[in-house]
Amino acid sequence: MNTSFSFKIYSNTDELPEKWNDLAINxxxxxxxxxxxxxxxxPQNMICHYIGIFQNQELVGISLSQFLDLNxxxxxxxxxxxxxxxxRNFLFKKFSSHVLVIGNNMLxxxxxxxxxxxxxxxxxLKTLKLACETLKKDYNSKGKKVHITTxxxxxxxxxxxFSIPDFNGIFKFSTQPNxxxxxxxxxxxxxxxxxxxxxKYRDQYKRARKKxxxxxxxxxxxxxxxxxxxxxxxxxxxxxxxxxxxxxxLVKNHFRIFKELLKDKFLFYGYFIDEKLIGFNTLIKxxxxxxxxxxxxxxxxxxxxxxxxxxxYDMIEYSINKGFEEIIFARTALEIKSSVGAKPQKMYGxxxxxxxxxxxxxxxxxxxLEPEVDWKERNPFK
Length: 382
Known about the structure:
The chain is of the alpha+beta class and 382 residues long. The protein has two domains: 5-175 and 346-369, Gcn5-related N-acetyltransferase (GNAT) (Aminopeptidase), CATH 3.40.630.30; 179-344, Gcn5-related N-acetyltransferase (GNAT) (Aminopeptidase), CATH 3.40.630.30. The protein has 14 helices and 13 strands. Strands 1, 2, 3, 4, 5, 6, 7, 8, 9, 10, 11, 12 and 13 form a 13-stranded mixed β-sheet that branches. A hairpin with a 2-residue loop joins strand 9 (266-273) and strand 10. The longest helix has 21 residues, at 121-141. The radius of gyration is 21 Å and the shape is globular. The termini are far apart.
């Protein structure tokens, strides 16, 4: 078998090979259209590159890399103010501020690469690692020394593919889980979902729905997103900066660009009281999977109206009505997502530090870099 593998690194989507989308057929987040969103509206502290993997000049694999400069962040997250958080922020600034991610740090799940089924995945991963080393040299030559390199975000079955000599000795870590919601085939309406809940959680559902009286939910089109752009950003930014941990902030035009390029695959819902936008959520159609994306809300109204919980129920309702098989709820607000029926999926990644001494102790460093979340899993179904 001929194993003549090579790679090419692209710095914008206009350079991508013609057949790029043939390999992104099962994942919108590796498609030319989505990557164009990153070209035009990636966070200010992020640089994206796109990697093509070739066998005998034929494109057989595609991958995404993101370089994060954490020195450019206004805040790592303002919710938790404690000694451990201060230590973590110091460690990031001092030893880990330049991070190269093979994958997508803005999403949850395996959005790092796609290979043709017919090729030797070990050879493809080996080639991807070579591309990664080339990227690191390029950044270093520009005065942006890469401190941490990570490959993320994989299920247990997926991380096993990295069990090859080239990845020996690289620290394997487990992150906070991905909250995954499986939609049974026999559910056709929101009532089917409600009927499946035990009394305690059906009562929660009814109470939340009642609290939402007076809120008008509206599907927003491109012109609406543009008209409300300042308010949208304020609502997003309020939620983002109060998260326990951040590695980026979206730029103001991100949702507008997303809608322009992904069209009806990107859904934007606004929540209004007396014509005032008080919250929004976003969804991305990815084949039979519905991916939840960023949201924002006015915190004072959120509590009173149980707005966040209602948004989760709305996402479930839409996904059931439209025949989706699963919802990816990602890895924030684990307990409340668990209370609506999402189940935790353990996710894994690989990480190495450029400093050999730090790399030897990277397991200890990781304890500071990945904030621990204490939460209780709920089981709302009969």
